[in-house]
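1st attempt posting a full record on here, be nice pls
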Amino acid sequence: GIDNIVTGNEFTRCSGIKLNGMYTYGGYRPSWYNDISYNHFKEGYYTHWFGTNDGASGESSIWIYAAVNSQQAEQMIIAANVNGNVFDNHSGIKVTSRHGSTALTKDVIIQNNRMANADKGITINEKTEGIVLKNNAFENVTKEYDIDTRAEVEYR
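the predicted structure (as tokens):
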């Protein structure tokens, strides 16, 4: 997906919104310049994929995910904006990628979001570059930020 806007939606018991940037079936499928703003996750939902602690299973979320299963890693996620969303009851934001040596995700802004009643607020794992976290609010969230040490994150 390139140049998409997802705004003004209400979600109840769904897995969430996923920006997928992948190299699969012999071609690149990037996710660049996408805006996810002013959505309301009213009631979260636990989605089970491959097993416990598999990186895919979890609470409802806005999930920014990049994966490349080749030696030639390219940036699959560039310039995502996650702004002004409300997460009530078991939902949050995840930025994850799978490659290990190269940052597949670059330049993500996560700002002005409100999260309440969840296990995790914002999760960032693997190697990422240029993520800005600004003015996010948490209420009754067990772990507000769950961030891997390989991620380049700037708090403002």
